[in-house]
Specification:
Family (chain A): Belongs to the MAD1 family.
Number of helices of chain A: 13
Number of strands of chain A: 5
Helix content of chain A: over 70%
Oligomer: heterodimer
Largest interface: A-B, 33 and 51 residues
Order of helices and strands of chain A: HHHHHHHEHHHEEEEHHH
Strand content of chain B: 25-35%
Shape of chain A: flat
Distance between the termini of chain A: 137 Å
Keywords (chain A): Acetylation, Cell cycle, Cell division, Centromere, Chromosome, Coiled coil, Cytoplasm, Cytoskeleton, Isopeptide bond, Kinetochore, Mitosis, Nucleus, Phosphoprotein, Ubl conjugation
Helix content of chain B: 25-40%
Protein name (chain A): Mitotic spindle assembly checkpoint protein MAD1
Mean pLDDT of chain B: 77
Strand content of chain A: under 5%
Subcellular location (chain A): Chromosome, Centromere, Kinetochore; Cytoplasm, Cytoskeleton, Microtubule organizing center, Centrosome; Cytoplasm, Cytoskeleton, Spindle pole; Nucleus envelope
Main location (chain A): nucleus
Largest sheet of chain A: 4 strands, antiparallel
Low-confidence stretches of chain A: 570-579
Radius of gyration of chain B: 17 Å
Strand order of the largest sheet of chain A: 2-3-4-5
Largest sheet of chain B: 6 strands, antiparallel
Distance between the termini of chain B: 48 Å
Structural class of chain B: alpha+beta
């Protein structure tokens, strides 16, 4: 069908094209001549052709489309068929899938349930784990605490041990010091005794000196007294002489007296001498006084003479045996007596001082005696203690010797177990030595025996001689010789024994010392390696100790810095201990926070300052501009002071009410402004107006005043 | 060689010293190993410093023993904290000079050497039972008593006898080598509980 269609289409197209081309030729030939009528017919033809072509085209197209449509329907059917097959397949598949899906969903649910269970178990286990971990941590902490305690206890124990050692050493040092000091004490005491003795002697000398000095002073005093008495006596003698002379004048005076009395009487009788009465009276009085004095002197003289006579008589009476003729003799006697007295007193004093010194020495001797008694008692006690010690030591020595003998026996028994061949050289040597000694002793013995025989022969011959001669003297001498020799032998034997004992003791001592490690520096020398383990160990120990000490000081510094860092909290910690990062890790945060805090504080401060300044500025500006200084006295109370206030206390008080409105409070100043208050506040209800009115009022007052 | 003039003596002493150090705990026991000598299993130290020290001393000692100039060998144990001598092992060496002069060396069978070493070590082990415990850290030193006219070698110096104050003394078994007789004894410081 298509091909037929195609051919029809093609033939129509060919015909069309031929048609089109035919008219074109004629068109070209008769282009200019045809004119518009041909053109129009041609045009119409062409248009008809075009329309036919179009119709053909559209038919073609329609046919084509029909074909296509049929094709499409076929394909559609095929496709639908296939699709249906596919749909059925897919439906089957879907069913399969749905089944599988359901199965899977069921499995999923089961798995989810299992997962939930597992999760629950997991959570439970986690909780159990957490609890166990907490327990562990708690236990670890307790362990650590115990370890720390143990460590501290060990340290304290070590420190206590060190202290104990140090104390022991100190005690030893102090004991040695004590002993040295007791020795010094004893020496000093001896010195003190010497000094005391010297002092006693010196004091005795002093006392004797003092006694002599006192006696001297007494003598001097007595001498002075005697001199004074002498002087008095001379004065007395002079007085006596004058008195005598005066006494010699007494009769003359009596005569004068009589005459004067007569004159007196005469004068008394004469009346015209009354004028001179007073004078006369005075004269009389004077004369009377003189008289009295003369009478006194006379009496004294008489007394003295009487006394002297008495004395003289007495002295004469007393000293009839002393040949006294003049007062010089008297004085001499007196002096002699006084001298005797002085001598006797001297003797007395000396005797007294001697007695006192003797008493003192006696008391001292008694004290010394008691001291010596006590000392002897002490020494007796010491001796007894030492005797006891000696006895104990002797017993110990005995025990030790017994032990030693026992040990020696044991060791000898041990030694005897060994084969004798090993000791042969030493034993033989010892044997040889012993044999030598034996030989020597034997030879010595033989010599002694020979001497003895010789001596005996000599005695025998002597005896024979004696028998022949029979001189008792020789016998005696020989006997004496024999006796002497026997004594000598005994002495020598005793000495030998003593020397043997000494030798044994010294050998024992030597052996002991050798055992202990002593050596004869003349013959032996002790060597050891310079780098020996002890020296090395000591060095290491010292190094350890030093290292420990350094560490201790370092740790102490760290602890101190940490303690100080905890209190102050600055970056000093980092500069001191950069190595201990672990311990300072938390404190670093702390330090950062502190730094932040400081910076914020600084900022706050600066802000405060700035605010203050600004507030100050603002207030001053307000004051300047408005003319009022506003102060806040208490909460919600404001006090205004005007620039032009007449007094410092003039101020207005405003209170802020709860609803926010300002109310004027009563003050001294506000009482004076009653009108303005009424006008501006009550009437106009404007505080600014009131304030400005007040300012203007005050200003006006200021300027006028 | 094992059989010689002075060889057995010094090696015996080396073993003796090692066993003393082990028994008294101067060095920790784990630093000692068992070594076979003369068909005996004996203890020797593995500490290198100690080994070198001992070889130095023993080599010098061999020389001196050969020349018969040694009188005593002393092992001194000092407490490190108080610097006090706690123990003193003294070996008196009696040298038979005639043997040195003779040319033929005296032979000793291995058996006798073994016997002697064993007896020495047994003795040391036995004495350790009654010696007081060394509780503080200690160090040891080896002293050699020689004739005065000996030339002092380079690394050696004179020292004191390092005796113990008021010691307790115990004499031990003596043993002989080819040319020496060794008397041993141990002195130790009395413990304060006595």
């Amino acid at each position: 069908m298509d091909l037929e269609d195609d051919t029809t289409i093609l033939t129509t197209l060919k015909s069309f094209n031929s048609f089109i081309s035919r008219p074109e030729h004629p068109q070209r030939l008769s282009e200019h001549s045809a004119g518009s009528g041909i053109l129009q017919s041609q045009y119409k033809r062409s248009m008809e052709l075009l329309e036919a072509a179009e119709r053909v085209h559209s038919k073609n197209r329609y046919l084509q489309l029909d074909q296509e449509k049929k094709q499409m329907e076929l394909s559609h059917k095929r496709a639908r068929f296939e699709l249906e097959r596919a749909a059925s397949d897919s439906a089957r598949d879907l069913e399969h899938e749905v089944d599988r899906n359901q199965e899977l969903l069921g499995q999923i649910k089961k798995l989810e349930e299992r997962a939930e269970e597992v999760n629950k178990k997991l959570t439970e286990q986690k909780e159990a784990n957490d609890a166990l971990q907490k327990n562990l941590e708690g236990l670890n902490k307790t362990l650590e605490e115990r370890d720390d305690k143990l460590g501290t206890a060990n340290q304290t124990i070590r420190s206590l041990k060190d202290e104990i050692r140090e104390l022991r050493q100190k005690i030893q040092n102090q004991d040695s010091k004590m002993s040295a000091q007791t020795l010094e004490n004893q020496e000093l005491q001896e010195k003190i005794d010497l000094q005391q003795r010297k002092y006693q002697e010196v004091s005795q000398l002093c006392q004797s000196l003092q006694a002599a000095q006192s006696s001297c002073s007494d003598h001097i005093i007595k001498i002075k007294e005697l001199e004074r008495r002498l002087v008095f006596q001379e004065q007395d003698f002079a007085i006596v002489k004058t008195v005598k002379s005066e006494v010699a004048r007494v009769p003359d005076l009596e005569k004068e007296l009589k005459r004067l009395r007569d004159d007196n009487a005469y004068l008394r009788l004469n009346t015209f001498l009354k004028e001179n009465c007073s004078l006369l009276k005075e004269e009389v009085e004077g004369l009377r006084k003189k008289l009295e004095r003369m009478e006194k002197t006379k009496e004294e003289l008489i007394n003295m003479e009487l006394e002297k006579e008495l004395h003289a008589w007495e002295n004469l009476g007393q000293s009839t045996g002393l040949n006294i003729r003049k007062p010089e003799d008297l004085s001499r006697e007196v002096i002699q007596i006084q001298q005797r007295e002085i001598a006797l007193k001297e003797q007395n004093y000396t005797l007294n001082s001697r007695v006192r010194s003797v008493e003192r020495s006696q008391s001292e001797l008694r004290a010394e005696l008691t001291q010596q008694h006590s000392k002897t008692l002490e020494e007796q006690k010491k001796r007894e203690a030492q005797d006891a010690l000696v006895r104990r030591l002797q017993k110990r020595v005995l025990l030790l010797t017994k032990e030693r003998d026992g040990m020696r026996a044991i060791l000898e028994s041990y030694d005897s177990e060994l084969a004798p061949t090993e000791y042969s050289p030493q034993l033989s040597k010892r044997l040889r030595e012993a044999e030598d000694i034996l030989l020597k002793t034997q030879s010595h013995n033989a010599e002694m025996e020979a001497q003895l025989t010789k001596a005996q022969e000599e005695t025998g011959t002597l005896k024979l001689q004696l028998q022949t001669v029979s001189e008792p003297a020789l016998l005696n001498s020989v006997c004496a010789c024999i006796f002497f020799l026997r004594q000598k032998i005994e002495d020598l034997e005793r000495e030998r024994q003593r020397l043997e004992e000494q030798n044994n003791i010294l050998e024992m001592r030597l052996e002991r010392h050798n055992l202990q490690g002593d050596y004869d520096p003349v013959k032996t020398r002790v060597l050891h390696l310079k780098m020996n383990p002890t020296a090395i160990a000591k060095q290491e120990r010292q190094q350890e100790v030093e290292a420990l000490r350094q560490e201790v000081t370092r740790l102490r510094d760290l602890v101190r810095s940490l303690q100080s860092g905890g209190a102050v909290g600055h970056s000093q910690d980092d500069t001191h201990n950069p190595s201990f990062s672990l311990s300072l890790a938390p404190s670093k945060e702390v330090l950062d926070l502190r730094k932040q805090m400081e910076s914020s504080e600084l900022r706050n401060q600066r802000l405060k300052e700035v605010f203050q300044r600004k507030i100050q500025e603002f207030r001053t500006v307000c004051y300047v501009l408005t003319g009022y200084q506003i102060d806040i006295t208490t909460e919600n109370q404001y006090r205004l002071t005007s620039v032009y206030a007449e007094h410092m206390d003039d101020s207005l008080l405003f209170k802020k009410g709860s609803n926010g409105s300002m109310q004027l409070m009563e003050t001294e100043f506000s009482k004076t402004l009653g009108e303005m208050v009424a006008l501006h506040l009550h009437h106009q209800k404007s505080i600014p107006a009131f304030l400005s009115a007040v300012t203007l009022d005050l200003f006006s007052r200021q300027t006028t005043v | 060689g094992e059989i010689g003039l002075s060889g057995p003596g010094s090696s015996q002493r080396a073993f003796g010293i090692n066993s003393i150090l082990y028994q008294r705990g101067i060095y920790p026991p784990e630093t000692f190993t068992r070594v076979t000598h003369y068909d005996l299993s004996l203890l020797l130290t593995t500490d290198p410093k100690l080994k070198s020290y001992l070889t130095n001393v023993v080599s010098q000692l061999k020389e001196w023993l050969f020349e018969c100039t040694v009188q005593k060998l002393v092992l001194v144990i000092t407490c490190l904290e108080t610097n006090e001598v706690l123990e003193r092992w003294q070996f008196d060496i009696e040298c038979d000079k005639s043997a040195k002069e003779s040319s033929a060396p005296r032979e000793k069978s291995i058996k006798t050497i073994q016997h002697e070493i064993r007896s020495v070590i047994r003795q040391i082990t036995a004495t350790v039972t009654f010696l007081p415990l060394l509780e503080t850290p200690c160090a040891f030193d080896l002293l050699v008593y020689t004739d005065k006219d000996l030339v002092v070698p380079d690394k050696w110096e004179e020292s004191g006898p390092q005796t113990i104050d008021q010691p307790e003394e115990v004499r031990l078994h003596s043993f002989t080598t080819s040319i020496h007789k060794v008397n041993s004894m141990v002195a130790y410081k009395k413990t304060e509980s006595a």
